[in-house]
Amino acid sequence: MPELPEVETVKRGLAPVMEGRRLVRVTANRPDLRFPLPQNFAERLTGQTVLQLNRRAKFVLVHLDGGDVLIMHLGMSGRFTIDAGNGARRPGQFIHDVGGISAHDHIVFEIAGGARVTYNDPRRFGYMDLVPSAELGACKHVRDLGVEPIGNAFHADYLARKAAGRKQDLKAFLLDQRVIAGLGNIYVCEALSRAGLSPRRRAGTLADKRGRPTERCQRLVPVIRTVIAEAIASGGSSLRDYAHADGSLGYFQHTFHVYGREGEPCRSGCGSTVKRIVQGGRSTFFCSTCQR
């Protein structure tokens, strides 16, 4: 599933094509994705002008001049294709790529100036919704989300307060979207590796008896920030290629410390190999020697 950096990459790819432009025509080729589309979805979008694109956690938010916000979630297999008259391209090509078959082109945005943005989703785990702008913060999609991992509200004191007394394992705690919004499996594995913390460690060890950040917590927060920032700068660690706003392709291949490297040597040179376990139904990759 695309994580925060991938969604940010997609948002940045869509913004130059959509921001400030009118949606001349919107076509919904089916009445639902993961959930039913809002009533009169295509009709409500057609004719509106896109004011701005933002991202919140793993959602792309499209602010419209009519006062609504189009909320878009990619799910597991959702992809956008942009055709601006100079050849179709995707704002992000994923390692585990799927789709491209026109039968899965579910939503089509025709934009003033001739561009076309198509949402393709073979598994239909993605979804879209329309909410009034004034109600965005209270809507079901974002109201319970935690802080952004690269925002000012994410710091060691915050993380320690959330972790205090928690007996769950550290990885599950960091994946909780109510704690940190948008942080997913790949980046939790990578951050814990860089911080030298075991994914099986109790989350509560990030706080002392008074709820203040321990040294481990102080070490982890900047690592999470760095991992996410580096991934955004490279177009996302699970991306194969990223189409820049001008249409030129850059090639990005992130060398993971642990993710997907089961049985391979630890990059620290400790002599151990990367192990894989399953936590909460997801693969966890780590070095049992370096991560304590």
Give the secondary structure arrangement, pairings included:
Blueprint (H helix, E strand, L loop, with lengths): L3 H15 L4 E6 L12 H5 L4 E7 L2 E6 L3 E6 L5 E5 L4 E2 L3 E2 L10 E7 L4 E5 L6 E6 L23 H8 L6 H6 L9 H11 L19 H19 L5 E5 L5 E3 L23 E5 L2 E5 L6
Antiparallel strand pairs: 1-8, 2-3, 3-4, 4-10, 5-6, 5-9, 7-11, 8-9, 11-12, 13-14
Helix pairs in contact: 1-6, 5-6
Descriptive notes:
This protein is an alpha+beta fold and 292 residues long. 22% of the residues lie in helices and 24% in strands. It contains six helices and 14 strands. It has helices spanning 4-18, 41-45, 156-163, 170-175, 185-195, 215-233; strands at residues 23-28, 50-56, 59-64, 68-73, 79-83, 88-89, 93-94, 105-111, 116-120, 127-132, 239-243, 249-251, 275-279, 282-286. The chain has a five-stranded antiparallel sheet. The protein has a four-stranded antiparallel sheet with strand order 2-3-4-10, covered by helices on one side. Strand 5 and strand 6 form a beta hairpin. Helix 1 (4-18) packs parallel to helix 6 and helix 5 (185-195) packs across helix 6. The chain starts with a helix and ends in a 6-residue tail after the last strand. Mean pLDDT is 89; it is low at 93-98 and 238-254.
Q: Which strands sit side by side, in order, in the main sheet?
A: 1-8-9-5-6
Helix content: 10-25%
Give the overall average pLDDT: 89
Would you list the SSEs in sequence order as H and E? HEHEEEEEEEEEHHHHEEEE
Query: pLDDT under 50 segments (min length 5)?
Result: 93-98, 238-254
What is the 3D form? elongated
